[in-house]
């Protein structure tokens, strides 16, 4: 019976387990191995270099800058996303007529790829020419046209990077908040009103917000992890035929150019970097999850 | 349920809510309008040009995206639903250890493992090979986890009825569980398909030869090229989002459910 049980289990789980082993566990192990070798353009290196790849990485100004870029990006995108998606959810939740349609409009960009959105942002909305959409609107109010993507001082390229991600992801988080809003039982509102709470701020503060606690934690953590993995919009908006500028390289862009970019594949350093980054994100996720849960309970 | 009469919301605030939503909705639709206007402004000939342009193999890349995304979505559904069911329902001594090994990988974001995975895929000889784009994406720990959570709540009575009718566990899964889970399966499928169609980083490093480019890689290379041809770019963008828009419109109900499941449970 025991053996038959094992057989049945592996019949179901076996294919996935084999794939997980080959495409997740083996890469991580192999990568850990490579990180101690000089692995230029090879996956079977022979020259052991100890911790050199790690010390190289951690003393590399560009690597530390990439962590700084992520921090700046997270500081800009996380609060704006949380506030705006919650606001959208609250507004959409008030609409009685055509609510599904309104929700779809905000959710629609979720189907769009980062490449396509970057294209629209870079070539039309925020194109540096006077006839670019945003520059035209600026002109109506007497504003000067800006180069946007090309403006480093002040770093206006952040406006482009942040707004494109907001457009793409607000609908997703709004849907999460809407689902959470609908799970708040009506009787809690009734009780609050009976107790004399006004339907505006007081009800929001004492009924809605506590009811959204779980969703808030989920949105914050997901948002942080996604910001950490930002690649597509940076690569497509800031990169061009001349390559990628030396600034505003988030961790994955840095890793891409170090380990797999045109300057030759340094898989040893790339692996060391990947492991350091994986460790870092695991720590950030665990800590933020714990801090948020504690502060909200 | 309405707030008490004395607190009834004024007409002013109702109008304000609608006004803000209308402005926001217009802003959200603007990028789509821009894309259509720039890409298909004059006539449909730009689309024809797109498919005959020699520099970027657009038609081929569109086909590659279909060849990658459709089998990847279907394959992932089969592999991950089986594993999720096994973990939820098939008793086995080491099941909890296996589950732990699956959940542990959720902590490691796939994007950070792209260098190590590149190493494995290149040693399999799958660089510039569609298999390198399809196969690694079949094994999603998140999907397995979500399927397991879902199957834990599946009505046991239905499965027992199937067993009484003489079905094996395997038979129960395919003849009873799957037909009664189409809503959930569709939810995961839509999320998978959109993710697969839209991804860039993985195909960018694996599909090094332009004959294996997906549509995202092709658009990205057009966008970062010298003097990009703007109308072609926008026409390409408009064509590339058609399949996902179609899926979005047809299966939106499932998509909303999928997002809620993946976001709040994942």
From TrEMBL, chain A:
GO-annotated cellular components: plasma membrane
Record membrane topology: Multi-pass membrane protein
Subcellular location, record wording: Cell membrane
Keywords of the record: Cell membrane, Membrane, Transmembrane, Transmembrane helix, Transport
Main location as per UniProt: membrane
Keyword Cell wall biogenesis/degradation on entry: no
InterPro entries for the chain: ABC_transporter_permease (IPR051393), MetI-like (IPR000515), MetI-like_sf (IPR035906)
Gene3D superfamilies to which the protein is assigned, alphabetical: MetI-like (1.10.3720.10)
Transmembrane segments: 7-28, 67-92, 104-121, 156-181, 212-231, 272-292
Record-annotated ABC transmembrane type-1 domain positions: 67-288
GO biological process, one term: transmembrane transport
Keyword Transmembrane helix: yes
Pfam families cross-referenced by the UniProt entry: BPD_transp_1 (PF00528)
Family under the similarity heading: Belongs to the binding-protein-dependent transport system permease family.
PANTHER family recorded: ABC TRANSPORTER PERMEASE PROTEIN, INNER MEMBRANE ABC TRANSPORTER PERMEASE PROTEIN YCJO
UniProt-recorded name of the protein: Sugar ABC transporter permeases protein
Species assigned in the record: Actinokineospora spheciospongiae
């Amino acid at each position: 019976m025991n053996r038959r049980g094992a057989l049945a289990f592996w019949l179901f789980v076996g294919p996935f387990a084999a794939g997980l082993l080959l495409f997740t566990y083996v890469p991580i192990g192999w990568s850990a191995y490579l990180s101690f070798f000089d692995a230029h353009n090879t996956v079977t290196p022979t020259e052991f270099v100890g911790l050199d790849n790690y010390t190289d990485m951690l003393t590399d100004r560009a690597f530390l800058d990439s962590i700084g870029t992520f921090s700046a990006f997270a500081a800009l995108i996380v609060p704006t996303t949380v506030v705006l998606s919650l606001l959208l959810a609250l507004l959409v939740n008030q609409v009685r007529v055509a609510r599904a349609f309104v929700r779809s409009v905000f959710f629609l960009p979720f189907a769009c790829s980062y490449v396509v959105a970057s294209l629209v942002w870079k070539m039309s909305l925020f194109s540096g020419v006077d006839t670019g959409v945003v520059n035209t609107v600026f002109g109506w109010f007497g504003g000067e046209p800006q180069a946007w993507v090309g403006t480093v001082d002040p770093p206006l390229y952040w406006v482009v990077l942040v707004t494109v991600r907001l457009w793409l992801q607000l609908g997703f988080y709004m849907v999460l908040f809407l689902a959470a809003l609908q799970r708040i039982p009506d009787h809690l509102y009734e009780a609050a009103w009976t107790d004399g709470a006004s339907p505006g701020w007081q009800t929001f503060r004492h009924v809605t917000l506590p009811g959204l606690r779980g969703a808030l934690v989920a949105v914050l953590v997901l948002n942080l992890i996604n910001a950490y993995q930002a690649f597509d919009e940076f690569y497509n908006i800031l990169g061009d035929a001349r390559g990628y500028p030396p600034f505003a390289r988030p961790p994955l862009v840095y890793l891409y150019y170090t380990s797999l970019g045109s300057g030759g594949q340094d898989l040893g350093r790339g692996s060391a970097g990947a492991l350091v980054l994986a460790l870092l994100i695991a720590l950030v996720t665990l800590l933020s999850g714990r801090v948020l849960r504690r502060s909200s309970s | 349920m309405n707030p008490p009469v004395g607190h009834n919301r004024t007409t002013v605030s109702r109008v304000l809510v609608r006004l803000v939503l209308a402005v926001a909705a217009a802003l959200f639709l603007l990028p789509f309008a821009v894309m259509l206007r720039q890409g298909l402004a004059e006539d449909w000939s730009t689309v024809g040009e797109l498919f005959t342009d020699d520099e970027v193999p657009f038609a081929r890349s569109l086909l590659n995206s279909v060849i990658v995304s459709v089998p990847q979505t279907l394959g992932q559904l089969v592999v991950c639903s089986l594993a999720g069911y096994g973990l939820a329902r098939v008793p086995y001594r080491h099941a909890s250890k296996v589950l732990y090994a699956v959940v542990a990988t959720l902590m490691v974001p796939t994007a950070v493992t792209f260098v190590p995975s590149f190493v494995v895929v290149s040693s399999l000889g799958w660089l510039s090979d569609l298999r390198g784009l399809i196969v690694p994406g079949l094994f999603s720990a998140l999907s397995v986890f979500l399927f397991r959570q879902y199957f834990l709540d599946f009505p046991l009575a239905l499965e027992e009825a199937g067993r009484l009718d003489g079905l094996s566990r395997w038979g129960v899964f395919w003849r009873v569980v799957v037909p009664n889970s189409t809503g959930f399966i569709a939810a995961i499928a839509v999320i998978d398909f959109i993710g697969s169609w839209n991804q860039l980083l993985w195909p960018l490093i694996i599909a090094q030869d332009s004959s294996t480019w997906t549509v995202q890689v092709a658009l990205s290379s057009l966008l970062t090229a010298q003097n990009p041809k703007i109308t072609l770019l926008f026409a390409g963008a408009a064509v590339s989002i058609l399949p996902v828009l179609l899926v979005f419109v047809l299966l939106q109900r499932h998509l909303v459910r999928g997002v809620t499941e993946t976001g709040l449970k994942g």
